[in-house]
């Protein structure tokens, strides 16, 4: 039976490809963005507690009340923003679902959606599946900052949505207050909405503060902010995230969410609600991950790569353009096979697959793994 694919150009993601190759080759997997260490045992004990207590049936569609309240409390503590947990906070099955539900809620056939290029690979398919048209605005090299004149030129009468990602994946760029203010100025007299992917909100370095779009009065009224407990608490396999949005947008978001997953794993929600009661568990994350970034970058100084330390996220990009003309995909595969360290070629994040001779490494791994990987990277010959 012939099938006309809705995503004819989509295949297996590079993250799956490189993780499998790393496994097949026995390589250290610094490719896919997941922590290489366990979460806090206390969090596991809490899950076990609620499973044994019988909290194993459907949770409310929008999330259990106590978890939504704790998310609102966290938002107040970190960003000094008051949210109504009843109609502005929704618990979902991972940030990817939040992003998809937000796009689906507001994008109709023919609507244009502005993406900053390079972009995480789930954005464009979500737009395409809803009949939208991706419009790519290239970020400025080498720091991957936003050229706001290019954004202004990209806005048209059919622009419905702008998708933001800060801290940015793959580059780690962290948006500034000027970025937020300029975006607000551009869209305040329009009907343009925003989806903001902020899954690395608690992973910023060198004293930088993550400026959530929920902190800006103009942007807050028209933005879906998508977050992730998986990234924050080292439990990416749990697939639990959340969406913060004003009541009108939340209502539309939940209409989609209830027919995607309906609800999210009940005992995990109760465990996270208890765990969030102690703010130090997320407030200490910048220092924790900066130690890993600094360790990795210090080791990279003895390698042939060039790099600027990431501003946020748990990824470090490195350039080899001064050393070789080999494609980033070929090099990432070769390094996995020959020296046993897997990375991601960042050309896959670009709409045109342009090769800037840059690889992305994930440093959210055990220090022992990072030391071994660095020893191998120091010895490469290009």
TrEMBL record:
CDD domains: AAT_like (cd00609). Gene3D superfamilies: Aspartate Aminotransferase, domain 1, Type I PLP-dependent aspartate aminotransferase-like (Major domain). Keywords: Aminotransferase, Pyridoxal phosphate, Transferase. Pfam families: Aminotran_1_2 (PF00155). Its cofactor is pyridoxal 5'-phosphate. GO terms for molecular function: transaminase activity. Residues 28-376 form the Aminotransferase class I/classII large domain. The keyword Transferase applies. NCBIfam families: PRK09082.1, PRK12414.1. This is 2-keto-4-methylthiobutyrate aminotransferase apoenzyme.
